[in-house]
Structures are given as structure tokens and as C-alpha cells.
Amino acid sequence: MTTKVVPGLLIAAQDAEGVAREASARMARLIRDAIGTRGVANIALSGGETPRAAYTKLAKEEGIFWNKVRVFWVDERAVPAGDDRSNYHHAKESLIDPAKIPADHVHRMPADEKDLDAAAREYEQILTKHVPKGPRGAPQLDLVILGIGEDGHTASLFPGLPTVDITDKFVAAVPAHDGLEPRLTLTVPVIEETRNAIVLAVGKKKQDPLERVWQTSGDLHVTPARIVRGVRGSLAWIIDKAAGGLS
Ligand code: 6PG
Fold this sequence. Notes:
By secondary structure, the chain is α/β, with parallel strands linked by helices.
């Protein structure tokens, strides 16, 4: 029996709706705090299904000066901006347009560019231009929203790929693999540097990867989502009872 310890704050909601509600409230508070303290909130969004309902609720939260929020992405697939697989597309529909975030504050990852390595360097420039560096030298975001895949990935840091080992870049290109399109992703140094991270997980299928992250020891190349244990800021897990193995 391996010891499991949840690093950070665990919020177990009854269901997906509860996760969206709790996540929206926490995101709103952290964004308001960042704006109140530093005059801006630099946030990075993950894609996938889980965060969409939270983004929709976040757009309706009170007291957020959306013109002081800068939006970046944690990762993006090599698809056009309007494609249904695009993380940008879903965030635009659920959050950016409803909250009327100014276009010059929205920094889409150009993962559909031909030269993905050049696109990674381009995005790195954008990130370092707008986001001050933290104590470890990486751009220090105020809030990073993460999910977790059934295979134990987070962002586009996938099991068996070397991306999780990259420490000399802030954005990396991820080659097509296992039927997945190529992607761009933030690297571990940026995710670790964030002031606040929230990991969202809904459904029974996330119980196993969550437990592999919460085990006190484990292999990053098998469960890259274990990198969230290195987050230097606040870390909150907002999950439903099914993902927590509590139902
Ligand atoms: C992506 C996401 C990815 C996501 C997980 C979980 O581009 O797919 O950024 O890291 O967070 O795959 O996705 P679900 O929320 O759809 O389960």
C-alpha cells in the first residue's frame, strides 16, 4: 500500500456542476487578488472538457476588471483557431467573448504554424514580454488552470515523451503521437513558477491518475501530472467525488 498525500488544498464537490462552481469562485478570487496587488492578472488556461463549465461561470463572476486580465494558454493543439479541437476556440466561446476581455490581452498559442519549434520560440517571447519572471527565472503567472488526463498527463506533457524533462525552455513543441495532433505546451519551469495553480478533475476515470500523482513517490515519465507537486505557489485540487474515489 503506497502512501498518498494530497499536496495543497483538496476541494471535493458532489459533481461536475459543483466543480465548476468551486473552480469559478476560486479563480475569481485569485484574479481579483492579483489585480488588487499588482494591477494585472496573468492567467494560463488549459483546454479539454473539464474547465469549460468553470470558464462559463467565471465570465459571470462579479468584481473582476477584465481589462486588467491577460490570458495565455497552458497548451494548444496544432489546429486552426476556430476548430472544435482548439483550446483557444472553447475558451473564447466560454470566457473571453462573454467577459469581453480585450483582444490585445488574449495571447493564443500559434500551434497551427508550420514550424512548431519557431512557434514555441515566438510564444516564449510573448510570455516573457508580458509576464515578469519569478524567483526561479521563469515567467511567473498569477494563475494556471490544469486538467489531468486518464493517462496521467497534464498540459501537453505526455507519458513516455521527453517534454516533461525540458528545463531550458518555457514553451515546447510536442510531436504528434498516439493519434494526437502536434501541440505547443508550457514547460515544467513555468508551471512550477506560478503563484497559484488549480487542477480540475471530474469523473471516475480520473481517480487512478490522481492517485498516481498523490502517491509520495512515482515516475514523472509515467505520470507527468506529478509535476504539479513542484508548484511553488498555492495548489488546489477541485474534483468531484467520483474522481476522488468517494462515491
Ligand atoms: C488539452 C488539455 C489537457 C487536459 C487533459 C484533461 O489540450 O487536452 O490542456 O491537458 O487538461 O487532457 O482533459 P479533459 O478535461 O477533457 O478530461
